[in-house]
């Protein structure tokens, strides 16, 4: 995972290599400034800050009434002129310059381009700090984007110390956090900005004048809220045990083998962090179910990335949204990042360039690059029902560790699935003829098997008797499975998967077809 120190080093290299404009993406101006002050000191450069409300100011000087405000440089064009005029080695940090780079601001865009050209031959660097990414095409080649990582546990530790020092003399405040609880508390805050964490810590303190182990839950709850607010990510409450997935033995085996893959011990052993899997296959056969089950098996939180919102959001900001979501996921890692029905969301990439001026393709590109370069303990589980919308880049080697094909449950998997759903409704599978049910349900998906069990329960309940094999069998016979109506699609999917994807179950699916032989 990229740490604050890595980023600092990266920025320093960019400054030394004289990249003219560095665009730092972050909500945390103060933290970024703090880091940049260190770089400036180390490189022996002066640091200046610009914002529309203050103009150019000497950086790092605490705000005071005496602080000279340079009103002429409030105007971004004047400010950029001053940057060009300055002769000393310096770093200029422009806070929220991005609103001046939208389409109609051609004067500022042009001036920034002039500044970039000029800066290349100087010891000056221009750094933009903004929460959103907005680069006009004219400046694309002059700017380098750096994602500023969210705070680490250590940053929160310092913050907590500061807060505790502030309240320690207040008589009615009770602080009771033994070291293990403190560690959990700091971990719970991962994913928040420093400001957000400060608010959360303060809020828990103000609530009851106490900061104790119990507050960890509050911090988690607050974090959920904040992450949800950010738009694309959602903490998913997993209520699925691994044992609730019937069949799919090969997939399960693969996942079990990697259950400890994200521990320190695995790193010491020399193993890389697994990247992720793509589960491709027939609808209703346990892909989403497996994604949820991995979370309980590995005891890692599950973050769902809302694909529809990712591509559907306002054109222009989607790229920033995905970057932000990935950054948040990395800060919470080890975590499972679940992209459900990726094929639906990607339907647009193939035709990109027409409808949304390539935004979908760019957003997807950002994701793919992240996926292939990713070293962080973020395990991606993507699911897809169809391949025709999947861009070939996604299926290339090196993106996922494995592509699994999830077919209709085989003859010997269906009894297991019946058992799972009977147990889910407090029935003992031993009281049912599972072989008969399995035979009757040839060609049924897991979801259809579940529906038949429930339907059987309803019928028996209406008859006011205990459910039997007969009730479920009847429900099965009244159902036309999707595999009948979608035979062609499923065959095509199977054909594609052969040789390209690994079967999620080791057993051959035999779709028993009973054809009546007609003699003429
Ligand atoms: N292999 C299975 N074992 C047990 N239940 C299953 C299985 N496959 C599907 N189901 C049932 O069907 C429901 C829908 O399956 P889901 O995983 O959402 O399908 P998809 O493959 O389309 O993502 C599940 O919630 C589960 O109840
Ligand atoms: Mg699904």
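Q: What amino acid sequence fits the structure above?
A:
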């Amino acid at each position: 995972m990229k740490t604050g120190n890595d980023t600092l080093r990266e920025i320093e290299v960019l400054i030394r290599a004289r990249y003219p404009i560095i665009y730092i993406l972050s909500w945390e101006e103060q933290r970024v400034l703090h880091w940049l002050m260190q770089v400036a000191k180390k490189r022996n450069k002066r640091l200046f800050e610009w914002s529309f409300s203050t103009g150019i100011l000497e950086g790092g000087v605490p705000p005071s009434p005496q602080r000279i405000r340079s009103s002429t440089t409030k105007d971004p064009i004047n400010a950029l002129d001053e940057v060009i005029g300055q002769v000393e080695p310096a770093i200029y940090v422009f806070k929220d310059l991005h609103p001046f780079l939208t389409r109609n601001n051609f004067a500022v865009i042009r001036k920034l381009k002039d500044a970039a050209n000029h800066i290349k031959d100087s010891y000056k660097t221009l750094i933009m700090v903004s929460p959103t990414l907005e680069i006009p095409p004219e400046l694309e080649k002059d700017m380098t984007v750096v994602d500023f990582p969210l705070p680490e546990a250590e940053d929160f530790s310092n913050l907590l110390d500061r807060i505790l020092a502030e309240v320690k003399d207040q008589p009615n405040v009770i602080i009771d956090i033994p070291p293990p609880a403190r560690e959990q508390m700091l971990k719970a805050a991962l994913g928040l900005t420093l400001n957000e964490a400060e608010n959360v810590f303060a809020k828990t303190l103000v609530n009851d004048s106490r900061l104790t182990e119990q507050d960890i839950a509050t911090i988690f709850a607050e974090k959920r809220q904040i992450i949800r607010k950010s738009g694309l990510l959602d903490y998913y409450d997993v209520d699925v045990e691994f044992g609730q997935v019937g069949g799919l033995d090969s997939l399960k085996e693969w996942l079990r083998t990697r259950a400890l893959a994200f521990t320190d011990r695995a790193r010491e052993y020399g193993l890389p962090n697994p990247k992720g899997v793509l589960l491709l296959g027939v609808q209703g056969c346990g892909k989403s179910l497996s994604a949820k089950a991995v979370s309980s098996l590995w005891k890692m939180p599950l973050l769902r990335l809302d694909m529809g919102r990712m591509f559907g959001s306002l054109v222009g900001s989607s790229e920033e949204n995905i970057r932000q979501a990935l950054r948040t996921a990395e800060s919470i890692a080890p975590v499972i990042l679940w992209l459900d029905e990726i094929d639906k969301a990607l339907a647009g990439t193939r035709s990109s360039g027409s409808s949304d001026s390539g935004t979908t393709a760019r957003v997807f590109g950002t994701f793919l690059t992240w996926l292939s370069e990713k070293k962080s303990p973020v395990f991606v589980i993507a699911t897809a029902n169809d391949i025709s919308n999947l861009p070939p880049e996604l299926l290339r080697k090196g993106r996922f560790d494995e592509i699994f094909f999830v077919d209709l449950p085989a003859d010997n998997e269906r009894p297991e699935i019946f058992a799972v759903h009977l147990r889910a409704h407090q029935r003992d599978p031993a009281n049912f003829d599972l072989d008969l049910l399995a035979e009757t349900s040839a060609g049924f998906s897991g979801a259809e098997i579940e529906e038949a069990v429930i339907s059987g329960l309803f019928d028996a309940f209406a008859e006011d008797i205990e459910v039997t094999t007969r009730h479920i069998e009847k429900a099965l016979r009244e159902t036309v499975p999707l595999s009948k109506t979608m035979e062609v699609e499923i065959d095509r999917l199977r054909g594609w998967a052969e040789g390209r994807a690994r079967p999620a179950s080791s057993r051959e699916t035999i779709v028993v077809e009973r054809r009546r032989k007609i003699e003429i």
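Q: And what stands out in the fold?
A: The chain has four domains: 4-147, 153-229, 256-402, 414-483.
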